[in-house]
C-alpha cells in the first residue's frame, strides 16, 4: 500500500479562493532551499471578475501589535513577492514543478492554478520567542506566510473575506557532521596561591540533534590553595535580536547542579549528561523556538548558520548554544564551550514514513481553525 500525502487546505470565508499545499516546513540545506509550491482553487462566480494573487512574505516582528504607536514600526518585511495566478499569465504546464501539483491540478479541475516561489539566499529561518502565560497578541518572531487574495490589482487593500493566510516555516537541517571535537580549557590563578586551577571542558562532537542528550566531560586539576565546590554544568541558549534593539536573551535550557568538590591538591574527571528539551521549558518566557504552527509540536530553535556573504542584521534573530561549567572557589569561576543544536538531515524514505505515520496514526488533523486536509 503506497503512503498517502497529507495536503493542507484553507478556504477564504467567502469561498472565492482556496490554498492547497503539500507541506508547511521548507528546508534550508545551506546550499539550496526547498521552493514553496502549491495550488490555488478559485470560484469564478464568487470572484466577480477580480484577479487572484498569491504572496510569499518573510516578516520580522519585534513587540506586540498594540506597540505600533507614534509612527514607530515594530515589524519589517524582510522579503515580499506577489504573483498573479488568475487570469494566468503563463501556461499551467510552465508553472507546474512538482508531482503533487500535477495530482492536485488533475483532481481539482480547470479552476485550479499552480504557484511557485524560490527563497533568496539571504533570508533567516523561522524563529519565535516563547510568550509567557499572560502574554497576549503577536510574539517577537521571524515569520513566513503564504497569502492568496483577490482584487482589481495587487496593490488594492486586501479584503479579509476574500483572502487566505497560511503560516509556513523555513527550517535548517544540520550540514554534514565534522570530526571536530570541541574542547575548551583555561587556567585560573588566585592571590596568595602559588599554583593555579586548571579546568578543561569537552564534548564528543560539535553538532547535536533536537532530543539528543549532550554528554559533557569536565576535568579539573586543582593545584591551587583554594577548595573547589558547588560544581554545576548547564546548556544556555543565546538569542541575539539584531534588528532594532540588539537585545540579547540568555536562557538556561538544561542544568545539573551538584555537590561535587575538588579540594586543594586533588583532581576530578567526570561526565555529566544534559537534556536541552523544550518539554522541560514549556513556560519559560523568551526562549527561542523553531517557529510555531497551530496544533503542531515545535522545539527549541536551531543554531543559526549564516552564510559569509549575508549581513547578520538581515537575519532578525540569531540563536546559538553553549555549555558552561561553573564552580565556587571563594568567588565563581566558569568556562564555556559553544556547540550546535539542529535537526538531522533525514533520509528520503524517513520523510515518506513520517507522512504515512502522521496521516494514519494521528487521524490527519492539522492546520488552523478552518483548515482541513485532504489526500492526493
UniProtKB/TrEMBL annotation:
Single Gene Ontology MF annotation: G protein-coupled receptor binding
Residue ranges of every copy of the Arrestin C-terminal-like domain listed in the record: 193-346
Superkingdom of the organism of origin: Eukaryota
Any one Gene Ontology BP term: G protein-coupled receptor internalization
Cellular component aspect of the GO annotation: photoreceptor inner segment; photoreceptor outer segment
InterPro entries, alphabetized: Arrestin, Arrestin-like_C, Arrestin-like_N, Arrestin_C-like, Arrestin_N, Ig_E-set
Classification via Gene3D superfamilies: 2.60.40.640, 2.60.40.840
Annotated transmembrane regions: none
PANTHER family the UniProt entry points to: ARRESTIN, S-ARRESTIN
Stated family: Belongs to the arrestin family.
Protein name: S-arrestin
Gene name tied to this protein: LOC115570015
